[in-house]
Design brief:
The complex is a heterodimer of chains A (306) and B (270). Chain A is an alpha/beta fold. In chain A, 41% of the residues lie in helices and 20% in strands. Chain A is built from 13 helices and 14 strands. Chain B has one domain: 3-Layer(aba) Sandwich (Rossmann fold), CATH 3.40.50.970. In chain B, a hairpin with a 2-residue loop joins strand 4 and strand 5. Classes of the chains: A alpha/beta (306), B alpha/beta (270).
Chain lengths: 306, 270
């Protein structure tokens, strides 16, 4: 099955609306495409369209949170994390308010809209904010679980979703733990640590490598902050080398987070795959991923190169 | 209006001067200009009780111009949220009185502020929550006149009117000065009233140092339905301390011990 994590966000948010009266949704004139509109259609009184005003979006969400609401403030990842960064920093993270910042259309898989709209720096920026939790679900099933977990967790959280449909790699009833990475394929020659829609690609790479006698462990590191230090350390000890892959800049994202842990606790070689300090561009999202080396083939190449 | 309002505000001003002198840094000018509005809010208008600080029905106050924190702290201390003797710990490394308000460590502070332009949006969010919960509390917000140069203020002005937030009552502390000089030399803000009116607000202009005028404006704002209210408060930066009044240099400089002594003596005599 192919589905976009943003679709799962809309579905799960609407489910939450039915069970948790404190959940409210705010959007900045993109509800039809971030899919918060699914919630808005069912709970119009608890949905606030803030217009094209991301700063106001985030700080209004903060005000709602001071009164016990659980706001999900959604817009494109690039606008949420860059344009409204000061509001997320000073009105959400500094006061530790229970706001869920939802960034959709993240990464080059956003596609035709081009580099202006493809967040590559969002993970790095959000990760650097004290108190912020950063989550990038691997598929639609996990995205739904993340949304439910976000409503349970008290505190600021950044949820990164994609525009493009991608393969589902989880069974519907699997156990999700927000603060634990997930080993999705076992192996001890190399660890491939991935997030978001790079997880199915990593699994694909692992299967191909298996045929060549290379046993790769694949880890779905959905929560990049706080990162599962224990699991990263175990990957380093068990596999001796690590490849990371993310649909985001190599500066400050998942690869960096993994390197920080490895360098401090168990130094082993790490190779990072991501956007190499460049912006994206227009094109079909799936093609762009391949072009930028965010593919199973490139993972295999990198694994074999060390 | 209660008869001791003058004494309450006077005590707040003395506390502001003394805590800033003890801190050795901070913002006296804008604290003193906002002082009378904060005094009327906390001691005449707002439903807040230090014994029941989490009352869901309490009125909320957002000090958007967070650098006037000393005025807020002076009010909260006098109201009983924390001991007045702690005011002199302002800005010290072990103090719960931060340079700008921090809601997580200071009793009575409803929102952390400091980065200008964000407070009105937060106030709107609080008012939306109150409406969702069927509560009748009011949300008050004081912005600086320089602060309204921030674009977000106008985003928030638009959304407060759009959502008909008649329980938002905002002030602009119009002391006409900001760090680099007169507002209209730095970046023209006037006419503030016409701008907010054009955004769909109920707007009043008052003397921001006249307790009755402040009180009447709030009563009138509460009678307004379907629109947020902006009260343009004409104020004097550094109000109450003659050598600070209308002096841009006292925006962000604390008085030394000698200056503080003179300022307190002058305030005591008022």
């Amino acid at each position: 099955m192919n589905s976009a994590t943003r679709e799962a966000f809309g579905k799960a948010l609407a489910e939450l609306g039915a069970t948790n009266p404190d959940v409210v949704s705010l959007d900045a004139d993109l509800s039809c495409t971030t899919k918060s509109g699914t919630f808005a259609a069912k709970f119009p009184d608890r949905f606030f369209n803030m217009g094209i005003a991301e700063a106001d979006l985030m700080a209004t969400a903060a005000g709602l949170a001071t009164c016990g609401k659980i706001p999900f403030a959604s817009t494109f990842a690039v606008f949420a994390t860059c344009r409204a960064l000061d509001q997320i920093r000073n009105s959400i993270c500094y006061p530790m308010l229970n706001v869920k910042v939802v960034g959709t259309h993240a990464g080059p898989s956003c596609g035709e809209d081009g580099g202006s709209h493809q967040a590559v720096e969002d993970i790095a920026i959000m990760r650097s904010l004290p108190h912020m939790v950063v989550v990038v679900p691997a598929d639609d099933v996990e995205a739904e679980k993340v949304v439910h977990a976000a409503a349970e967790y008290i505190g600021p959280m950044y949820l990164r979703f994609a525009r493009l449909a991608s393969p589902t790699v989880h069974e519907r009833d699997y156990d999700f733990d927000l603060f634990r990475g997930e080993i999705m394929h076992e192996g001890n020659d190399v660890a491939i640590i991935a997030c978001g829609m790079m997880v199915p690609r990593a699994l694909d790479a692992a299967k191909q490598l298996e045929a060549e006698g290379i046993h790769a462990r694949v880890v779905n590191m959905h929560t990049i902050k706080p990162i599962d230090v224990e699991l990263v350390e175990d990957c380093a000890r068990t596999c001796g080398k690590i490849v990371t892959i993310e649909e985001a800049s190599m500066v400050g994202g998942l690869g960096s987070a993994v390197c920080e842990v490895v360098a401090e606790y168990c130094p082993v070689p790490v190779k990072r795959i991501g956007m190499p300090d460049i912006f994206g561009k227009s094109g079909p999202g799936a093609d762009l991923l391949d072009e930028f080396g965010l593919s199973a083939e490139h993972i295999i190449e990198v694994v074999k190169s060390f | 209006m209660r008869s001791d309002m003058k004494d309450i505000a006077k005590q707040m001003r003395i506390d502001i001067v003394e805590m800033l002198a003890a801190a050795g840094s901070g913002h006296p000018g804008g604290s003193l200009s906002a002082c009378d509005m904060i005094a009327v809010l906390y001691f005449d208008k707002m439903n807040v009780d230090p014994k029941n600080p989490e009352d869901p029905d309490r009125d909320r106050f957002v000090l958007a111009k967070g650098h006037a924190a000393p005025a807020l702290y002076a009010a909260l201390a006098q109201k009983g949220f924390f001991p007045r003797k702690d005011l002199i710990t302002l800005r010290k490394s072990d103090s719960y009185l931060q340079g700008h308000p921090n809601m997580n460590i200071t009793p009575g502070v409803e929102m952390s502020t400091g980065s200008l332009g964000q407070g009105l949006s937060v106030a709107n969010g609080m008012a939306l929550a109150g409406r969702l919960d069927g509560r009748d509390y009011y949300v008050y917000c004081i912005m600086g006149d320089g602060e309204i140069q921030e674009g977000q203020v106008w985003e928030a002005a638009m959304s407060a009117a759009h959502y008909k937030l008649d329980h938002v009552i905002a002030f602009v502390d119009h002391n006409h000065l900001q760090i680099d000089g007169n507002n209209d030399e730095v970046m023209t803000v006037n006419p503030i009233d016409e701008k907010f009116r054009a955004f769909g607000w109920n707007v009043m202009t008052i003397d921001g140092h006249d307790f009755d005028a402040i009180s009447d404006a709030i009563d009138s704002a509460k009678a307004q339905q379907g629109k947020p209210t902006l009260i343009v408060a004409e104020t004097v930066k550094g109000k109450g301390v003659s050598f600070m009044e209308d002096q841009v240099g006292w925006h962000g400089v604390a008085p030394n011990a000698e200056q503080a002594k003179a300022a307190v003596a002058e305030l005591m005599a008022q």
